Amino acid sequence: xxxxxxxxxxxxxxxxxxxxxxxxxxxxxxxxxxxxxxxxxxxxxxxxxxxxxxxxxxxxxxxxxxxxxxxxxxxxxxxxxxxxxxxxxxxxxxxxxxxxxxxxxxxxxxxxxxxxxxxxxxxxxxxxxxxxxxxxxxxxxxxxxxxxxxxxxxxxxxxxxxxxxxxxxxxxxxxxxxxxxxxxxxxxxxxxxxxxxxxxxxxxxxxxxxxxxxxxxxxxxxxxxxxxxxxxxxxxxxxxxxxxxxxxxxxxxxxxxxxxxxxxxxxxxxxxxxxxxxxxxxxxxxxxxxxxxxxxxxxxxxxxxxxxxxxxxxxxxxxxxxxxxxxxxxxxxxxxxxxxxxxxxxxxxxxxxxxx
Amino acid sequence: xxxxxxxxxxxxxxxxxxxxxxxxxxxxxxxxxxxxxxxxxxxxxxxxxxxxxxxxxxxxxxxxxxxxxxxxxxxxxxxxxxxxxxxxxxxxxxxxxxxxxxxxxxxxxxxxxxxxxxxxxxxxxxxxxxxxxxxxxxxxxxxxxxxxxxxxxxxxxxxxxxxxxxxxxxxxxxxxxxxxxxxxxxxxxxxxxxxxxxxxxxxxxxxxxxxxxxxxxxxxxxxxxxxxxxxxxxxxxxxxxxxxxxxxxxxxxxxxxxxxxxxxxxxxxxxxxxxxxxxxxxxxxxxxxxxxxxxxxxxxxxxxxxxxxxxxxxxxxxxxxxxxxxxxxxxxxxxxxxxxxxxxxxxxxxxxxxxxxxxxxxx
Lengths: 356, 363
Description:
Largest interface: A-B, 49 and 49 residues
Strand content of chain B: 15-25%
Radius of gyration of chain B: 21 Å
Number of domains of chain B: 1
Number of helices of chain A: 12
Number of domains of chain A: 2
Helix content of chain A: 25-40%
CATH class of chain B: Alpha Beta
CATH superfamily of the largest domain in chain A: P-loop containing nucleotide triphosphate hydrolases
CATH topology of chain B: Rossmann fold
Oligomer: heterodimer
Mean pLDDT of chain A: 88
Number of strands of chain A: 12
């Protein structure tokens, strides 16, 4: 099962049509996820990592919508009397309000959010919410659903799960709420769990508990995890593969070891240099920071989106050409002009200049 | 801190009211209890012991980190020091420029005014800590106006100077906060806190809300300003890797109490309190090689409710070294085990705890 493709994003574009103009939140994102792997999507705020995740489930907030591209989900289905059936559905083509996408949400793909207090209902008990999710997708009786809910709560490490079924969210601590949220997301054995900053609001010791739990559950339930985070420490701990995003585009993709020890894109390199690592101070090393800030979404720079802050900026190239994805060995992708055939690209710009 | 324990730090003498000779600010047995009221008569039924006996001292020119999980009372401690709250008990001894020692804890509003100039605060959220209706010149210049230190052209020059110091263009003086990004707003907050030439600046999660790349800029800025203006920082934070980078010494809090206080290097290499050990092991390291090597100590359960803390050592129900009798019954005092290393644990000397081997990871 492992190694098979589970999800493919192809040139995904999600845009927000506001009164002040169009925000290209996700601007041509392509990557692939394998069954059973943990993929971390990392980037600073405004880089489009959350919108990418929400696009997959078609839950982008108004006035945003998926305008282009494909989200191919390889679904395995157990049909009565037959063996497993593999089908490929394009989630991007589905109507956000259709039955088809609702059938995927919470069942094949489920999602957990940063702040469980705002994503769980405050006026329903934990039990009711989990039972609802189960009964929506599986043909079981109320009693069976309740038994399963108790089992799930026990599995995610909530003490006295039977009693907690009747608890409201405000009666639980932050860590417990996130556990309840995870229990709910697991209720229908999803093949993909999308976790959008699941531990950002939690303390470090609670974060450690939740990350451990997610790792255990991933193996137990045989699911893949897409982890959206800004914390490179969490990435290093959890990821098999990493996608680095900047301003709605994928800057670099690769396995976790190459991203951390052999980063290719100047943005990834700068990002890694700007986090405090233990022992840095003892060696008298000052933190490198990336100059400037993330550009205004209404006013995206042309060419490579990172060129305004890049130390390796090549005038006449980076601000003119949008870098194509360049393959650097197996499963490794970089979008930076430093690595392509620069001469060819330079010729290309020369020509465009001449034409003008 | 009792005199007996001080014998371990050579060359340090105590003033008559117990202040160390090397401290700029010393907090002694600080307590801040908030009443819980219930019923028609709003009777006090219990207290939230947000800060319950904190002892620490800050040396001039250093950066002292104050770390702990949410609800441990680190922010309340900071607010008590700037006297935004009136502490329930305890002393906040402060050494003035003329070497005179004053206690800020019982001081009245009128007397505090002067000290509010010397002790300033930088807040976490640059979005809610700046008044959206004030242009930059008023935001940064307000403390000077209120204290009648500058006005007119002089005020404007001073604001321009401060803006330049924090890396912003003085031309932006007439703009309102909404025109700035999070990092720039945090710079404005820093400029405002520097307006009165403070001696001690309390940074309450000053970089927690910022993106990685901007965070590095602000951390470097804080270091530069410390050099230039001879500032002393109390750096309240929950992110241990940031604390390790910027702080000279670190104080660890757990449920309203200080559990460990020592130099940054020693805390990370050889922690003496089991809670510190667990906290250090929980920090995700930004290096995948570390993954295989590390055995994480996962703490059971949640942080106790500060209104009903456990008996004895507050950490004993979650501690893997708890002996079940002494730990459960007797509250450990903060004591100096080796010179400069303060721990509140009965068994500190007997335990050999795991730190983070800095040399292993340094790239």
